[in-house]
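Hi F.,

I've been meaning to write this up properly since the lab meeting, where we talked about keeping a consistent format for the predictions we share between groups. The idea is simple: the sequence comes first, exactly as it goes in, then the structure tokens exactly as they come out, then a line or two of notes. No screenshots and no reformatting. I'm using this chain as the first example so we have something concrete to point to.
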Amino acid sequence: MAVAPDTAADLVSRIFDLQRVVRCVANASFRGMDTGVALQGVLRFVGEGEARATHLAERLGVSAPVLSRHIADLEMQGYVIRRQDPDDGRAQLVALSPAGVDKLRQIEQHRTATLQDYLSNWSQGDAEDTARTLARLTESLKHSARATATGPITMTQTPKEH
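Output, unedited:
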């Protein structure tokens, strides 16, 4: 059976609220660190594997010049490396440096600890149910018009999947 319009509208509102709260928590949690939330997002995508900068920009939903600035900042901090694409000399491939791998691990550990603290009054079962529901929602949404336009979406593994 299809989802009712009122239910879909409620989901849209709750997803918007969740995005806003997650952004606020991320901004507060990482205030004063050398990588802001935007750079952390780029770092995470780069951490999924070496890729062309243009592909990363499409996946992140940002323009090439915006991504180029982020990559330059991360490169200056020693977290990413760029090299010429051997298949297309005009393109660049971007990957994490060893320091970038360490930084991404630190960020993920910090985010995990922060969320664990915020959810201290949740049961393990509630957290697992929510993770399953979010995974199902993500799977449904990744076939959206934007996801289709930007290419396949690769999801990172949860700790249980490692």
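Notes:
Residues 31-142 form a domain with the Arc Repressor Mutant, subunit A fold (CATH 1.10.10.10).
Confidence is low (pLDDT under 50) at residues 157-162.

If this format works for you, I'll send the rest the same way.

G.
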